[in-house]
Amino acid sequence: NGRRLQLMENEKVVMLSFSGQDAFGFACNIQRIIKIPFEYMHLTFPDNIQGIMVRKAPRIKTRIIATVHGSKPAETQVSALISDISAHGISLEAKRQLGDKGDILNLAFRVQLHNVEAYLSLKGVIRAVISGDPAAAEKSDLIRHGIEFHELQPNDSVILQSMIYQQLIENPHKRV
Fold first, then answer.
1. Are 125 and 147 in contact (CB under 8 A)?
2. Collapsing DSSP states into helix, strand and coil, what is residue 159?
3. Most exposed among 15, 46, 105, 138, judged by the fewest C-beta atoms under 10 Å?
4. Contact at 8 Å (CB) between 60 and 164?
């Protein structure tokens, strides 16, 4: 929250790092703390580094409007925002909860692939529902849904992967 940690030289610290799809952790000692001209510290090289894969595929930030409706015929169609996307799923923000964990949604949206617009109509399973982000600076009334693609067709998979890799190359800062 913008507050400085009170660290001292020779103190043991545990460092955690997230790099794209992997998370790493290691213990080391603070060798030296430098405060001028800016703050940084020298760390000892760790004896052991542990890593695990957190994500199955790269994820990029987006702002894609999607049409969503549940798998039951009586459910109404709503608009939602895809805030990030990977080859395996999306983060979907909506004004209301779109279902419960395990529910299947029908999703439709357009993506740009090398200046060609592609229309995707996919099924997704709700894996997480998060209302309000306590870490966000501004309050949002939107409810975030973690959606895993379900029964993804090979052609749709190729379009998604191509669009994601195109964005990673052209706009590397959009990687989540």
1. yes
2. helix
3. 138
4. yes
Two tokens at 37?
């001209």
Measured distance CA(150)–CA(103) in Å, rounded: 11
What is the pTM for the complete model shown?
0.67
Alpha carbon of 93 to those of 21, 133, 164: distances in Å?
22, 12, 19
Q: Which residues contact 85 (CB under 8 A, 6 or more apart)?
A: 59, 60, 62, 64, 91, 160, 163, 164
Angle, CA of 70, 74 and 75, to the nearest 5° = 35
Inter-residue contact 124 to 146 (CB < 8 Å): no
pLDDT in tens, the chain (176 residues): 677 788 999 999 998 887 766 788 899 999 999 989 998 999 999 999 988 766 667 788 999 999 998 866 667 889 999 999 998 999 999 999 998 999 999 999 999 888 889 999 999 999 999 986 555 445 568 899 999 999 999 999 999 999 988 888 888 878 77
Contacts of 66 (CB under 8 A, 6+ apart): 79, 80, 81, 82, 90, 92, 107, 108, 109
